Amino acid sequence: MNEVSVQEADFDAGAEIAALTADDPQAGAVASFVGLVRADKLAEQKVGADGTVQAMSLEHYPGMTEQALAEIVAQARGRWELRRVRVIHRVGRLLPGERIVFVGVASGHRGDAFAACEFIMDYLKTRAPFWKKEETPAGGRWVDARETDDAAALRWQVSGGD
Amino acid sequence: MNEVSVQEADFDAGAEIAALTADDPQAGAVASFVGLVRADKLAEQKVGADGTVQAMSLEHYPGMTEQALAEIVAQARGRWELRRVRVIHRVGRLLPGERIVFVGVASGHRGDAFAACEFIMDYLKTRAPFWKKEETPAGGRWVDARETDDAAALRWQVSGGD
Amino acid sequence: MALKILYFASLRETIGRGGETIDLPDGAATVAALRDWLAGQGGGREALLTAKNLRAAVNQKMAGMDAAVADGDEVAFFPPVTGG
Amino acid sequence: MALKILYFASLRETIGRGGETIDLPDGAATVAALRDWLAGQGGGREALLTAKNLRAAVNQKMAGMDAAVADGDEVAFFPPVTGG
């Protein structure tokens, strides 16, 4: 099974979590994350009174994306003792409430699993080449990068779990 | 749906994760944790060369358990902005590789979801009345509490996410 | 005062019972005093004094050894928890 | 030197193309110099200078504006990423 996938298709978080520990007697902990398209965030972009939530589309940099995700996972493996890791990021058009991203980390101990899972998400948010565009009644609108995401990634450089 | 459950039955992590955000437009992030019976940890208790992994049994304090878990979730809600939360802990006899515990936290933002999920696990490990007993070829053996678990819980009192 | 006592895990096995109803003489009104009194009753209950890191709950809430106990309370003794 | 240039997201839309192959005059051997040269070619590429927090990748790895570029490289320009 691939460690990272970039795909249009949805994923099954339960199946991914189960696969992370199947037949691995040393895997005692799985921390995972699922990110979804927030309907209320899209709604903030409404322009008119009749503005209804449309959708979001995710563009990426084919080729670099998989490499960037694999590199982030490799960095996590260098910092914590991990068993299997799985990262799935969807691209294309996504509706409110749909799943965007899955990160699952199996480890012998929960501390390593939690830290690595959050690290991978924080780095993915700032280093993997994906761009979100929201559809609104007034047209498309590219989502701005958030400074809080930069801060979240930066904190691993200061006090990372070594 | 109940926020906390203590049960003999297994759970479906994927279904639990999906239920945490169903029809909630403000839920954009789900952090979750699954703990399993580590086969290799049970194997450490082998006494003879022919000692094979047996199983683990989980005892709890009926009545108090649910209350203690609900109290831990309430504390998490006081610290972070959370949407739905779900805690499932199994009791009874469990085989190596079987799931023991599920903690899932939905939130608008991933930082809150991650912190609350780890907090709930750390507090559960030190404040919820469950006791593990391992079966070994030499007989039953109660698992010792780990000092690292106390340390993990304590760190929330110092630098908790307020 | 009448108290419902519960024992869990290794303590339950050592003492040989999951619980009992007792009538505590007046005067002993803390978890620690109750523990000492119970240990004095013998029958394996001495384990309450030798158990490493003994923990207690009063009316199903974690309680320190200096916590008060009152008539009708449910008091549980157990080793440190190991769930999760 | 021959370079493959790629543009993504808002930059792709502003410039009106996803990429192009160019022949960069000798002497300009950093991402910043390449950016400036491209902007001088007009046709919407001025956006490379006005884009807020422009980011770049050389051969599919994130690169700073002072990173070197060499013949045959693939250089991408894009706004800060917003996945996850």
Task: Describe the protein.
The complex is a heterotetramer, with two copies of chain A (162 residues) and two copies of chain C (84 residues). Chain A has 162 residues and is an alpha+beta fold. Chain A has a single domain (4-154), classed as Alpha-Beta Complex (Aldehyde Oxidoreductase, domain 3), CATH 3.90.1170.40. Chain A is 38% helix and 28% strand. Chain A is built from five helices and eight strands. In chain A, the strands form two sheets. A four-stranded mixed β-sheet of chain A has the order 1-4-6-2, sandwiched between helices. In chain A, strand 7 (130-136) and strand 8 (139-142) form a beta hairpin. The longest helix of chain A has 18 residues, at 110-127. Chain A is globular and about 55 Å long. Residues 46-50 of chain A have low confidence and may be disordered. By secondary structure, chain C is of the alpha+beta class. Chain C has one domain (2-78): Beta-grasp domain (Ubiquitin-like (UB roll), Roll). Chain C is 25% helix and 27% strand. Chain C has three helices and five strands. Chain C has helices at 9-15, 31-40, 47-50; strands at residues 2-7, 19-23, 55-58, 61-63, 74-78. Chain C has a five-stranded mixed β-sheet. In chain C, strand 3 (55-58) and strand 4 form a beta hairpin. The chains are: A alpha+beta (162), C alpha+beta (84).
